[in-house]
Amino acid sequence: MTLPPNLARIVDAPFPRFSEPEMARRRAAVEQLLERAECDHLLFCGANRFGSAVQWLTQWPVTAEAVGVMSPRERDTLFVQYVNHAPQARLLADQAEVAWGGESSIQSAIEVLGKRGARQNRVATLGPVNAEQHAALSAKFEKLKSLNRDYIRLRQVKSAEELDWLRIGAHFSDLGMAALRDAITPGINERELGDRIERTYVSQGATNVIHYIGTTSTTAPDLAVPRQFPTTRRLQAGDAVVAEISAAFWEHPGQVLRSFALGEPSQLYRELHAAADAAFDAIAAVLKAGATPAQVIEASGVIEQAGFTIIDDLLHGYGGGYLPPILGCKSRPSGPLPETPFRAGQTVVIQPNVVTRDGKAGVQTGELVVITETGIERLHTMPRGFHTI
Q1: Is the dihedral of CA 113, 114, 115, 118 positive or negative?
Q2: What is the domain partition of the chain in residue ranges?
Q3: CATH architecture designation of domain 160-388
Q4: Which superfamily, per CATH, for 5-155?
Q5: Tens of pLDDT along 58-110?
Q6: Measuring CA to CA, how many Å separate 294 from each of 13, 242, 297, 310, 371?
Q7: In the predicted structure, residue 310 carries a pLDDT above the cut 90
């Protein structure tokens, strides 16, 4: 698996950058949200590597904490914690005025808002504002308007540059899944499999998001979905290995899900994976701009027709967060069914985790795709299917 030259050039850069037109596009889109909300200033934040708006607007991946202020026709201000994070933040968020947040990043941001003449009821927020931050802002500016819902809708559709970075994340995720496949051998345990996965992409510039792994006997199964935390269980002949892997390139991840058998799988596992493949193909056949979540769930009915159900989500948006729509199936719904049609440029993970109704056996298959006007485009190259080792 190799990257095409245009993507390899991005990876090889010491600090990969989005273009100035791309960053201007993002800022203009958020300023439009501000105008519609009848607000003059935006406070955006993130903490503990959570809160995608900070990087989307400044190119600084959130570490411990970051609080920014955006005002039309003004340079952004960004406060970061800790003090030793500020030097690299200045390099990456080079279009913002970056400083250490001192004792309180939110108080530093409030001072900036005050200097910019922010008025009561005219400040909007974006990101995971915690209770203390909200209280401090409200005490100064009264009612705040959250842009989170509108921002999520904005992030569902990706630009051409964003899709390139997600293709890189997909490439690294595929490398991890291929490393898992190649490491499957009697005697290796789940922790060691995780080590093989991460080792293949960290040295190339990727970061680990998740590598969920589950192993179980196919004749006496006791696991239907991958574990979030690996065990010391060692593989033996006749086992199934199910996995979900996401590696990210500067917070732009792929997501690939596959199942493997160490030796010939049982008839039950063949049937489970046949249903999973059929569900993936049926969903992929209906997905395109204008398709509805109801059509996706109807297509997934092949799972119930085969006598099975799911545990994990059937489909979800991905890239910039775990995004809507988040869909279940007929036998395992996930709440009220969204009515909004899919749009061209949305990136979603199709992931039918087909399981027995008693929840004791299951398989994984699926991957991140981009929706187009006429169908879907694969972002991954890892071969599909139930692989026998």
Answers
A1: positive
A2: 5-155, 160-388
A3: Alpha-Beta Complex (3.90)
A4: Creatinase/prolidase N-terminal domain (3.40.350.10)
A5: 999 999 999 999 999 999 999 999 999 999 999 999 999 999 999 999 999 99
A6: 43, 28, 5, 17, 16
A7: yes
